[in-house]
């Protein structure tokens, strides 16, 4: 009976995904390996489609056995070329935090696993089958009800808050990856999953390596070779992701920054962060702190305040000396008394009425102070908030099918695969 199960489920991914003819496979692989995976002409066909991928509903021990039965590719597995981010300081800060979120929620607080996840994300950014930004890749499919590419972005995992130490470590790894650090073992892998699930595509991609409990894969044929990863320009315009705003000051900005805007403060972000930290807690909400009334705070890094009546707009950045002292990441949002929000979450009307915003992130070098120039005119238009309010995408309901990338923290029961020879209804080969 065990032999029957093994034959059935080891062969089922091939039937669902439509494997290519394998008769001359060994000879073809040998020829391909001799070419070093570095040459070839782009085929006329488009890149493979990227769709949410369901997995077989199997007990974890049986899934591990089936995964072990799929051999590792004998083809060369060259290391990816260094990825060097090009874009503004704001875009870099957003990319770092999107990448860090993918790392820590997919791999947990594991430096090796996080480096592997980061490499897969950046490989996807370079491949024409995927979005052109880091944040676009990480949060691809978050708007779908049938699943997303990285399940943490749509299954409620973001409700958990990593420890400050774990988050800082993830961000450090992300910054390194965006500055050229390469995790060589996964090569040009664009897919991975834990060893206790069996995705539909596991038998149709080249299995490259194992890192901890994760198995890494790349597409077969030309689309998995190095030339496929340098066919287009990377778009540095990183989108604002409201879902990680509580973790990331770079994503908590209510209004995008105009390019080149700078803070008029004499103190740099590093100088402010080096000052002694003032204890500010929930017990001070509704009270005056540093000359302004504290409305709300989040993660001790984001402060909503009511600006004093009759105060001069040029004095508002000084609140950073109180709220941001001793903090490497800090965000201040200010309203006048009549427009101050009465409750959270903030509405679009609250965001439109905000009079002042300050943000700094010493690790990325970001420091900005912006005013609502509709109500507080500024001589330098770079000091103005852009009057466009991004709308955060609400989390879709939990999907029935799951993405083809898996975290290490659990095994989930998902849709059972159709019988051999039956076209899949909602899952396509990625």
Report on this model:
This protein is of the alpha+beta class. It folds into 2 domains: 2-39 and 47-242, no CATH class; 257-383, no CATH class. The protein has 10 helices and 9 strands. The strands form 2 sheets. A 6-stranded mixed beta sheet has the order 4-5-6-7-8-9. Helix 4 (89-107) crosses helix 7 (164-178) and helix 5 crosses helix 7. The protein is elongated, with a radius of gyration of 24 Å.
Keyword list:
single chain; 430 residues; 25% helix; elongated; hydrolase; alpha+beta
In spatial order, strands of the major sheet run: 4-5-6-7-8-9
Shape: elongated
- Low confidence ranges: 1-39, 254-264, 388-430
Number of strands: 9
By secondary-structure content and strand pairing, the structural class works out as alpha+beta
- Along the chain, the helix and strand elements come as HHHHHHHEEEHEEEHEHEE
Q: Using only CA atoms, what is the Rg? A: 24 Å
Distance linking N and C termini:
31 Å
Domain count, please report it: 2
Compute the number of helices. 10
| Largest sheet properties | 6 strands, mixed
Mean of pLDDT: 77
Helix content: 10-25%
InterPro entries: Cell_wall_hydrolase_SleB (IPR011105), SleB_dom1 (IPR042047)
Protein name: Cell wall hydrolase
Organism: Sphingobium xenophagum
Domain Cell wall hydrolase SleB: 109-217
């Amino acid at each position: 009976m065990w032999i029957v199960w093994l034959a059935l489920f080891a062969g089922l991914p091939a039937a669902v995904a439509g494997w290519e003819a394998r008769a001359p496979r060994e000879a073809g692989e040998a020829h391909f390996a001799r070419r070093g995976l570095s040459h070839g002409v782009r085929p006329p066909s488009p890149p493979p489609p990227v769709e949410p991928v369901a997995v077989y509903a199997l007990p974890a021990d049986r899934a591990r056995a089936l995964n072990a039965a799929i051999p590792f590719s004998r083809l060369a597995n060259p290391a990816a070329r260094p990825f060097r981010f090009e874009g503004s300081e704001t875009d870099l800060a957003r990319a770092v935090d999107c990448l860090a979120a993918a790392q820590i929620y997919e791999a947990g607080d594991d430096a090796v696993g996080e480096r592997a996840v980061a490499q897969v994300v950046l490989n996807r950014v370079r491949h024409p089958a995927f979005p052109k930004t880091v944040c676009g890749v990480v949060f691809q499919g978050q708007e779908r009800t049938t699943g997303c590419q990285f399940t943490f972005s749509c299954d409620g995992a973001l409700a958990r808050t990593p420890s400050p130490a774990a988050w800082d470590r993830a961000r450090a790894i992300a910054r390194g990856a965006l500055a050229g650090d390469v995790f060589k073992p996964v090569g040009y892998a664009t897919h991975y999953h834990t060893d206790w699930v069996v995705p539909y595509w596991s038998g149709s991609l080249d299995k490259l390596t194992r890192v901890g409990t994760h198995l890494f894969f790349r597409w077969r044929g030309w689309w998995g070779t190095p030339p496929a990863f340098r066919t287009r320009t990377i778009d540095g315009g990183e989108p604002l992701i409201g879902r990680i705003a509580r973790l990331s000051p770079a994503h908590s900005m209510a209004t995008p920054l105009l390019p080149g805007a700078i803070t008029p403060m004499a103190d740099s972000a590093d100088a402010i962060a080096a000052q002694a930290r003032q204890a500010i807690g929930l017990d001070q909400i509704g009270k005056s702190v540093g000359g302004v009334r504290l409305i709300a705070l989040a993660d001790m890094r984001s402060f909503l305040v009511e600006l004093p009546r009759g105060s001069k707009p040029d004095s508002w950045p000084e609140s950073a000396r109180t709220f941001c002292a001793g903090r490497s990441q800090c965000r201040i949002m200010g309203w006048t008394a009549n427009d101050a929000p009465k409750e959270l979450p903030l509405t679009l009307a609250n965001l439109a009425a905000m009079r002042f915003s300050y943000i700094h992130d010493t690790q990325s070098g970001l420091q900005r102070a912006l005013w609502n120039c509709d109500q507080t005119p500024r001589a330098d238009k770079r000091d103005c908030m852009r009057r466009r309010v991004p709308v955060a995408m609400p989390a879709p309901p939990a999907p029935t099918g799951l993405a083809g990338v898996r975290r290490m923290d659990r095994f989930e029961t998902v849709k059972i695969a159709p019988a051999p020879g039956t076209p899949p209804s909602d899952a396509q080969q990625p």
